[in-house]
Design goal:
The structure is a homodimer of 129-residue chains.
Chain A (H helix, E strand, L loop, with lengths): L1 H4 L10 E10 L6 H13 L4 E8 L4 E8 L2 H8 L4 H12 E16 L19
Antiparallel strand pairs in A: 1-3, 1-4, 2-3
Helix pairs in contact in A: 2-4
Chain lengths: 129, 129
């Protein structure tokens, strides 16, 4: 619930990891809303969880990005005993299609703290500024 | 327009880059819809553009993820002569808040082609499978 209220995630300085989950829902709830809420609560309790951002439109298309301190934390969450059956139900019932990408966040900037610099790729793009 | 129809982006094998743009719109259109559509058309024409996924809900919260072959392509698009004023208008008029993250996609899998393996972090997580 606190997740739903804070829509923009407040993440630490990179590097850290992002799991980009893009999905198209099937019609009807069939237990989806309850499980989605529960998974978000549970994810937020896992070691290495840094935050998440999630949105779904009226057509059932959605993007959820969760942020993690490292790949080990992502693997542990993927293997979580309560998360596994939710993944299976997602594949079989709730999602007509989905794509999941694991990415290493190298840089970030926002409206209030725009610390992006010109020509970032050439100068220390992989380091912490 | 073709972008809007194909909601899930069809990306090549990693590695490639993702720009994760999370934003909260202000009220009212004020030229936003036209410019957003134009920027998507224009982005799709840039060298290194691989695809994009975008969703915004009725509360004005949105996530757009665009995919690029490398950081140079991202930097070139950021500096594009027609993109620059759109970024400024976004900062001043259209977005109450936003966060932009640049991340290197290392792995991906989907519903139809799930080539994820157990314990991926320990075994070649940075290589192409």
């Amino acid at each position: 619930m606190s997740f739903k209220q804070a829509r923009l995630a407040s993440t630490p300085e990179p590097p850290y990891y992002a799991v980009i989950f893009t999905s198209q829902r099937t019609d009807g709830d069939r237990g989806y809303a309850y499980t989605a809420e529960r998974m978000m609560e549970l994810a937020a309790q896992q070691p290495g969880f840094l935050g998440a951002e999630s949105v779904r439109d009226a057509n059932g298309f959605g993007i959820t990005v969760s942020y993690w301190s490292n790949q080990e934390a992502i693997a542990a969450w993927k293997a979580h005993v309560e998360h596994k059956p939710a993944q299976e139900a997602g594949k079989r019932v709730w999602y007509a299609d989905y794509q999941l990408r694991i990415a290493k966040v190298e840089r970030q900037y926002g409206k209030l703290l725009d610390h992006d610099r010109e020509a970032p790729p050439a100068t220390g793009a992989h380091g912490i500024p």
